[in-house]
Structure formats: structure tokens, C-alpha cells
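Supplementary Methods S3. Complex input for the pyridoxal-5'-phosphate-bound model.
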Amino acid sequence: MERVYLDYAATTPLDDRVFIKMMPWFKQDFGNPSSVHYFGQQAEAAVENARKMIAGCVGAEPEEVIFTSGGTESDNFALRGAALRERENRGANEILISPVEHHAIKTTAEQLRDHFGFEVTYIDVDEYGMIDLRDLEQKINPNTAVVSAIYANNEIGTINPINEIGKICHQQCIPFHSDGVQAVAHLDIDLKRDKVDLFSLGAHKFYGPKGIGALVVRQGYSLIPMVTGGKQEENRRAGTHNVPSIVGMAAALKQVQDDRLMECQRLTILRDTLINEVLQSVPGSKLTGHPRMRLPNHASFVFEKVNGNQLLILLDMAGFACSSGSACKIGDPSPSDVLLAIGLDPITALGSLRVTLGRETTKRQVDQFLQTLPSVVERARKLG
Ligand SMILES: *Cc1c(COP(=O)(O)O)cnc(C)c1O
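Predicted complex, serialized as C-alpha cells:
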């Protein structure tokens, strides 16, 4: 059986060209970038070159890029580091986030509330999961330590008006973090234009290796470090650099950026075919997330009277790898917070399906999926 991978929002396969660029740094060029000698200098040059490339791809300065172990650590670092810093500097005590954040932000905010004495306030979103700017303007206040709003949603694909959010935060001088982990592969990111102070990326969502990411921190802003130890990353994140992965992340990011316009066009056509056909051929189906302001590779639905987990298993048996929305929800029978936040009732929210496309997705695969889905949904409904 041919297996069709339609879960690029969960992770992407490593780009072959990237893999080749990573290889020397595992063995021949194994030096520690912090060492003074030749071996160290070679590794350091590779890390600094990667930093420059990454900064160039997102409209940042090289000094603003801090390497981390992935999107999760970047989110943790941004939110916790800014909250603690702002409380120390000016006594601010409130964290303002959207209710459709990734778990890496949501759970970190809850920990700051439950164990560090912060208050967490949620900004309203509309039925598509887009931030309500007027509500943000009303809720932001001098006690706000940090604002966090996801750039493009992993579960429902909606793209937030980041530039507008950035403007509001900037006017109030409140640091603004955006989780860009899903956005980086598909959107034109310019952190200066959008006034984003803190920006998370993770390489495995754009055909880079797993376990590596970066946090971009606006120049002059200093977070309270989370990982303490040596003086790496200008004392902002300790620990010996993961040189092969850093090299791989930069190469992967450069490659997706070079391919971006063509690939976005191709994926948008496939995505729109997929969305339109699913809505037409599956009774009781509904698109979740914004119909237009959404990631070009992202389609997400809810189906009436379907158990989403059951649907995933049946699809997998038919050769299609999809998701219910978030890879972090394996075996969790409770409905997604994101789907509840956009106003779905808990029963409907359990019938969710996310189909995300990528480099290796073909028209033929999408057609095969569309041929299979209606009968699989029928079967899931009968199983109850
Ligand atoms: C995948 C993802 C993360 C977590 O990144 P990891 O590198 O897997 O830790 C955070 N935020 C969003 C929006 C994601 O899609």
C-alpha cells in the first residue's frame, strides 16, 4: 500500500540537501564553537554563518537570533523570560495571550499563573480564531508584562494580523511575542515591519532537523535566561551549540524561502481543491479557521457525528496520515481548546480533522484522499 503523508503541520521530512550540509559537522568538523583552537573556530564560523542566514530570512539582525532546542523552548523562553523581566523592571504582573495559542505558550502561561503569581488574561478571538484587535486595545494596560499571539495557527491555519497587533503593543511599550513556528515555511516574515519583539521558530516544521529552533529577541531587549550555565549565546542561553542542527536549520530556512512563492502557489491550489471538495462531498462537514487568511498548506474541518480519533485510525488504515489538529493530543479524548475558543460545542469539536500539505504532496495524492474520505467518514459515523 502506498502511504500518503498529509500531516506537514506535525513535522516535515528533512530536506536531502540539508542533510548533506549537516553531515560534516557530526564527524570531521566536530569542534566545540566555544573552544579557542582551530577546531573550535571552524565550528564557531559555521554557527555564526547560520545565525546570519536565519536573521536575513526573517528581517532581523544576527545578534538578535538565539539558538534553542526547538519551538517549545523558544516559546517557554520568550514568555517566561519576558514576564519575569517585566515584573522585575516595572512590577507588571499580567500576561495577555490569545486562547488559540500552542500548548507551549498556553501551559507556560498557566505555570506562570499557578506558581509564579502572574495573572493570565485571554484576548478575544473571532469565529475563525483571529485576534480581536479592539479587545486587545481594551485589555492591554500598564500592568501587562507581555503579549503573545500566534502568527499562524497550527490547528486551524488562521493567520493573525501580526502587524496590527505589533502596532498596538508598540504604542503601549509592551513586549510582543509571536509563535511563528507554523508561519516560517509559508509566509513573508519581516519582524521589523511587524514590530515583533520576540519570535519563535522550530526547524522541523520547515524541512530542517528536529530538536533545534531559535528565538529572535529584538536588539536591546534582555530576557531573564531559562537555561543557565556557560556563556554561550551572549549569556542568554547556555549549553554547547548543536552545530549540525544549527547548520541544518539555516540551510532549510534558506531553501524554503527560495522556494516559497512557487510552492505557496502550488499548495494554495491543492488546498482550495481539497477544501471545496470535502465540503461538497461530505455531508455535515464544516471548515474550521479562516477561509482565506489561512496557511497555504492547511485544511481543517469538523464533521458532525464523527469521533475524530476513530476517523484518524480509519484513514491511517486506508493509507492516509492526517491529524485531529495538534500532534500533542494523542490519546486525549477531551476536545481541543482552540476549537472551543472559536465557539464550537464540545461534541462537534471532537469530530475534527486536519489535513496539511507539503513539498511531496501531489495532485494525485489529494485526489486519492478526496475519493477515500467520504466513505471513511460514513464508516466512522456508523461505528458511532
Ligand atoms: C510544532 C509547534 C511548536 C513546538 O515546536 P517544537 O520544535 O516541536 O518544540 C510550537 N508552536 C507551534 C505553532 C507549532 O506548530
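Residues 70-72, 75, 102, 104, 150, 154, 179, 181-182, 202, 204-205, 213 surround pyridoxal-5'-phosphate (CB under 6 Å). The radius of gyration is 21 Å.
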